[in-house]
Amino acid sequence: MTALRIYAGPVARQHIEQHGLQAADVGVVPAAAGGPKGLILGPLDRHIFGHWLPAAPHRRPVHLVGASIGAWRMATACLDQPVAAFERLEHDYIHQDFALPPGCSRPKPQAISEQFGANLQAFYGPRATEVLGQRRYHLHIVTTRGRHVLGREGPWRTPLGYAGAFVTNILHRKAMGAWLERVVFSSPQAALPFATTDYRTRQVPLDASNFHPALQASCSIPFVLRSVQGIPHAPPGAYWDGGITDYHMHLPYSPDAGLVLYPHFQKAVVPGWLDKSLKWRHRPTHFLDRMVVLAPDPAWVRSLPNAKLPDRQDFTHYGRDLQARVRAWTTAVRMGQQLADEWAAWLQRPDPKRVESL
Prior knowledge:
Blueprint (H helix, E strand, L loop, with lengths): L3 E5 L1 H10 L6 E6 L10 H11 L9 E6 L1 H9 L4 H13 L14 H16 L3 H5 L4 E10 L10 H15 L8 E7 L14 E5 L5 H8 L9 E2 L8 E4 L17 E5 L27 E6 L1 H4 L11 H6 L3 H14 L1 H12 L6 E3 L1
Parallel strand pairs: 1-11, 2-3, 2-9, 3-4, 5-6, 9-10
Antiparallel strand pairs: 1-10, 4-5, 4-8, 7-8
């Protein structure tokens, strides 16, 4: 059974038909939020960042844009030994376990935040200098900053603010900017590879003092983890998961940035987390004209454990049976090697007939 589907916007398809696809053509790699779903992309990440992109002539930096687990993946790509680093990320994510307090059905957000922050510190430690000193890649960590009532976290402020954001987002995505804004923490002196006319946006330079809190903020799901506050050099306020504003990085990418290569866990590129149920916003726009999406075939996904990608519901499904969840997720990731193998084979002979419209 074929595992990999390749989709492309009209500009990207025309380029492939005329020139094939070379690593030097790629100027941007986005990485979606989506929690454990991102695990299935581990073998692709190891091939792309461990072998394919490093072999290309280093003419210009490649922009890596990620939110939540996508930010963690893209920061890992910037480490000096990315293949080993991706293997550790995969292991650490699969084996994460949060203790339940007596009488509680789920861990407290404060406890999850503290443990997750410690995990990030253990994973990167002082290696933020590797990430920030990387010349081949420019990293952009996407976070969501609360405004007005969401400027601080609280038992009534947070539910009220997100209810307001949900309602205004239904009316118009840009209107959600009254409650939340996109804040991107970028490698020093790196320009954003996308326009910011689509949504209220700020950019903050990354350094050793704000790398860890920015990355934790990008992964901080509201009501599951606590927001991150007091990030050095950033505007004050509460910072949450970057997937709220930019779930799948549906962004107005600059034509000057080159092609956008997107290892993704599905075909649809959904703008924001609050758009998940708004099916009319799942369609492609001209923002994706230069994009190439690598995604698992839905029929192949049904061959995985539980006939689906790993997801956050598995924490509830398996409960305290950690080993069962570990087995299921490990099996899925191992099966994901087929995605990387098929991608590598296609690169040897880039057949335009296999490229579908995005």
